[in-house]
Amino acid sequence: MLWAVFTLIAAAAQTARNAMQRELTATLGTVGATHVRFLFGFPFAVIFLPAVMVIAGYGLPHPPPVFWLWVVAGALTQIGATATMLSVMGERSFVVAYAYIKTEPVQVALFGLIFLGDRITPLSGLAILIATAGVIVISLKPGAGSVSTKRSTVIGLLSGSLFALSAIGYRGAILSLALPHFVMAATFTLAVGLVLQAVLLSAYLALRDPGVLRAIAKAWKPSLFAGFMGAFASEFWFLGFAIASAANVRTLALVEVLFAQGVTRFIFKQPTTRRELAGVVLVVIGVALLVLAY
């Protein structure tokens, strides 16, 4: 059950990072706030790698060619997923945005079966469906037929799809290393992925909108916290991916909805409805079944 511990730590850290990124969107824009996660995250990932080497006594792996295909796929889809997530968070409440995005586990299960051959037991499948139903219930709001709501729903579901593909890409990269020690496989993949993302987005902004890079530099204090929390969360996501299927990790990660409820209520001062509470109950039931199934 070590994967569950890793996932819970990652979920808590990611909720804090998402809340900070949401606040940065107002001053940096969607692309700028997205870049903060990678630009200020990769130095910490680069620190994690030698720390693992020194403490555990592992050497650097020699990745096969397929590793680079997996890690590039994971990195690019994660950039798109983060940008679309912040976009929908700007249109709906923090927890409702989470609800749209967290339809991800069903998609992860499907993609994991197709691309990695990850199998899902009947009980795990039931857990995924119940927990996902919970986030759908949370997302059902009055005015669901409005154009703006439809748009945010589509963007949120797209974000969930991209996060699902990113999880599969990174798990594929970790497994392709075929290392006996999963900590090095996860940490090396994280460092490569974040460096790649930081370089690509920095180059894009330098060419298209250098003003955003200057704005990011001015907002370095909150950005540094968001970057650290992002790298910290990703380290534990990757550790989870190294020893459990992406579907199991991402389903347990739905506890983020519970954390998001707390952030929504106590930080953003947005009320929680009875429908949202009912959805939370379904999420808790689904997560409990998943833990029992493993």
How is the secondary structure organized here?
Blueprint: H1 2-39, H2 42-56, H3 65-89, H4 94-101, H5 104-115, H6 122-139, H7 147-176, H8 182-208, H9 210-218, H10 220-243, H11 246-252, H12 255-266, H13 274-293
Helix pairs in contact: 1-3, 1-8, 1-9, 1-10, 1-12, 2-8, 3-7, 3-8, 4-6, 4-7, 4-12, 5-6, 5-7, 5-11, 6-13, 7-8, 8-9, 8-10
Explain how this protein is built.
It is a single chain. By secondary structure, the protein is an all-alpha fold. The chain has one domain. The protein has helices at 2-39, 42-56, 65-89, 94-101, 104-115, 122-139, 147-176, 182-208, 210-218, 220-243, 246-252, 255-266, 274-293. Helix 4 (94-101) packs antiparallel against helix 6 (122-139), helix 5 (104-115) runs antiparallel to helix 6 and helix 5 (104-115) packs parallel to helix 7 (147-176). The longest helix has 38 residues, at 2-39. It starts with a helix and ends with a helix.
